[in-house]
Design a protein that fits this description.
Layout lengths: L7 E4 L7 H7 L7 E5 L10 E3 L14 E5 L16 H16 L5 E4 L4 H8 L6 H8 L6 E5 L8 E4 L9 H4 L2 H19 L5 E5 L14 H15 L3 E6 L7 H4 L4 E4 L2 H11 L5 E5 L5 E4 L16 H16 L1
Parallel strand pairs: 1-2, 1-5, 2-4, 3-4, 5-12, 7-10, 8-9, 8-10
Antiparallel strand pairs: 6-7, 6-11, 11-12
Length: about 325
């Protein structure tokens, strides 16, 4: 179990993006964390101090960033990913996972990566952070949750399928895939969010949840039966529900998390409701992982205008999860 007195590791992400300028701003989170990356990438004037022993408290002066040093091979140019740095970005993630899994950190919070840059520079074979983290954890079954932090009732969404083309969704959304997403979400809501009897809403795949077969048959052919079977086990489930009526406030008050059929069905509502306060959480890992719900923003990198609200929320959520575990 993670020790909440240990720091969260904040991985550097793509150094040509907004990650380095978000790290010192994230001190406003008020929770112990260390930045894992190359300190030369931090904004000019950043006050930082190198740390080596994560088991000891971080007795740093207020406003000084704790840095777990990981030097990169090439200089950083904001807005232009350097191919020679791609492998170092990947290595930072792996190093953070090693530290978390060995009990030297309370969890990890990952700043955004640029998948194209990693693929071009280092042949990165994974669609994103989530899949790579699952690989590092030995092939763990995971799902991605996006959780709001500033809206009431909260919006927590889990897409059962993630980074695939829309035309692939009906083929890849199988009873096994949806059941796995529901079970992982249920367990994580209890363990990491402190909800003893989580209520989970399940979105249908088709418009109006198929409208009794008029707009698609997945809901009739297998989704209803799967949900009924899980209810018989004691799961508090509702659905399959029309996705277009699931996310206004009165609807969200009736459940604790929503499991959706595909990426945009889940992410559009939360990014509309809580764009700056949304947090990406990987459920099902043997360690805690959160991330801000935005990308590298190469177009504004280095200008000092990046909004740190999401990374602050992600660090606080990781710290809270460590306390609950």
């Amino acid at each position: 179990m993670p020790r909440p007195d240990l720091p969260i590791i904040l991985t550097c992400g793509e150094p040509a993006g907004i990650g380095p300028e978000l790290a010192p701003k994230a001190l406003a989170a008020g929770v112990p964390f260390v930045f894992l990356g190359d300190p030369s990438h931090l904004p000019q004037g950043t006050e930082w101090q190198e740390v080596e022993d994560l088991s000891a408290p971080l007795p740093l002066p207020q406003g000084k960033l704790a840095v777990l040093r990981h030097d990169f091979p090439a200089p950083n140019l904001f807005g232009r990913p350097e191919p020679r740095n791609a492998q170092a970005v990947i290595d930072v993630i792996a190093r953070a996972v090693d530290l978390a899994m060995s009990g030297q950190a309370a969890g990890i919070c990952t700043l955004p990566i640029n998948k194209e840059a990693l693929k071009t520079g280092a042949g990165f074979p994974f669609p994103g952070h989530t899949e790579y983290l699952a690989h590092l954890a030995g092939g763990a079954d995971v799902v991605m949750m996006l959780a709001s932090t500033t809206v009431t009732p909260p919006c927590r969404v889990v897409p059962a399928t993630i980074h695939i083309a829309l035309e692939e969704v009906p083929r890849q959304l199988t009873p096994e895939v949806l059941e796995k997403a529901i079970r992982i979400t249920h367990a994580a809501m209890r363990r990491d969010f402190g909800i003893a009897e989580p209520r989970i809403a399940v979105a249908g795949l088709n418009p109006h949840a198929g409208e009794n077969g008029v707009m698609g048959r997945q809901e009739i052919d297998w989704m209803r039966a799967l949900i009924a079977d899980l209810r018989a086990e004691g799961f508090a489930l509702s659905g399959p529900l029309p996705a277009d009526t699931m996310f206004h406030a009165p609807a969200r008050a009736r459940y604790d998390a929503a499991v959706c059929a595909y990426h945009d069905q889940a992410l559009i509502p939360i990014k509309t409701l809580d764009f700056s306060g949304g947090v990406n959480v990987t459920l099902g890992l043997p360690f805690i992982r959160t991330s801000p719900d935005h990308g590298t923003a190469l177009d504004i990198a280095g200008r000092g205008i990046a909004d740190a609200d999401s990374v602050i929320a992600a660090l606080r959520m990781a710290h809270d999860m460590a306390n609950r575990r």
